[in-house]
Design a protein that fits this description.
mainly beta; about 50 residues; globular; about 0% helix; four-stranded mixed β-sheet
Length: about 50
């Protein structure tokens, strides 16, 4: 089953900010914008989790 994780705090080599991460198998397939869709993947929203 394809999954997509969304969080307000995603760290990439270029920035820290909101993003959606579609996952295929055990690998991140892309780094998408917060509002971009990830096809028919099951969505999991982590929002803005504090430490």
């Amino acid at each position: 089953m394809a999954q997509a994780f969304r969080s307000a705090r995603v760290v990439t080599p270029k920035k820290l900010g909101p993003a959606r991460l579609p996952v295929e198998g055990e690998q991140i397939a892309a780094v998408l914008g917060w509002d971009e869709t990830a096809g028919g993947a099951a969505q999991r929203d982590f929002g803005d989790i504090e430490r």
